[in-house]
Amino acid sequence: MTVVTRFAPSPTGFLHIGGARTALFNWLYARHHGGKYLLRIEDTDRARSTPAAVEAIIDGLSWLGLDWDGDVIYQFPRAERHAEVARQMLAEGKAYYCYASPQELDEMRQAQKRAGVPMRYDGRWRDRDPKDAPPGVAPVIRLKAPQNGQTVIQDAVQGEVKVENAQLDDMILLRADGTPTYMHAVVVDDHDMGITHVIRGDDHLNNAFRQLQIIKAMGWPEPVYAHIPLIHGSDGAKLSKRHGALGVDAYRDMGFLPEALRNYLLRLGWGHGDDEIISTKQAIEWFDLPGVGRSASRFDTVKLTNLNAHYLREAPDAELLPLVLPRVEAKLGRAVDQVGVARIARGLGGVKQRSRTVTELGDNLVFYASDGAPPIADDKARAQLTPDSKALLARLAAAFDGVTDWSEKPLEEAVRRFAEAENVKLGQVAQPLRVALTGSTASPGIFEVVAILGPVETKKRLLAAGG
To answer: What EC number(s) are associated with this protein in UniProt (predicted)?
Structure first.
């Protein structure tokens, strides 16, 4: 059997974190088993489905690297196929016309509410002759669900789960206007797409009992269900925006790398021993459903940020450069010239060791592209530029004129000789020098910075700071 999974989002908003993890698990399971991973856009809710949301979902999946097989499948154009299956079930006596009016159904629900019993359709048209239908009422088509026994699911994550059929009512397959319901369309689509494994959030578990009844009525192969626990906030409460329940695009904008977010989402609810840093290759090799836990996971932005810092340090500078340049330019309010780009490219390796996100990396690289002395970051940095240290920097600028080898080691030796000649400690020179060149008390190695800025820019900034 070829494994076929699917990710089937509703395009009513961005690709949120929970959806991204569901997509990841489906993608990994298919890739692990050498199968197919399909993408279906469930756009039957025409009032809420938008092209912008479809674009955001596809863009988010593409950025995460979760490539799907074949074309994107859209649910809405398949409405006639959904209706065809409902009519087939009607013809086979597995479904029936229901002529109950909205008013009747409301009265039924109110009576059930007063009686303190669960509100569900009471089957009033289940065995009635359509000849009794009231004039002018367009019927819906309802599933003739089993009323006795149990519906049992051997869930690959939750284990055996079951429900008494008496608790389930005859759900609507086709509305009075001929449009299919979501519950019905999903089953037909999964069957036609050859889905073998339905991996989704456990908030869909109740849907599975109803959907399985349609599958059994049609005599179709049953998929393997795997309902994964939801993601909660770090405090254990339902995940919300304050916990980080943002769209995937927001994490990209905040400077997270796709490989870091993939790794983090993988570890939310799935584990492989004590392994935390898991490459995509390892994830495909190791991922399987038995490793998925049954408890809700907790989203922790701090852990994600720390993991991102690891991937940032490991990322090739050439891949990071096009990511940081737009951020540097946004900070400067102008384009970075060729000289600035060259400096950033040389300095990126040192700065990324001190950065956690691409955003921080861009912020920390701005000083390389500044024209002249960069702005002083804070009072701590400003305190380094005392009248004495400014005078010291001016004399250092002159001392640099005698340096012929503008590389780190000779520069360090030159500054040490200068400190000895001035009868001061190296730190009394290095810290004001750092602030003058970078605007901050924290930076990569100061001699690396001096080497990258070059003699002309270094002297310009020293004289500006000493003036």
So the answer is: 6.1.1.17
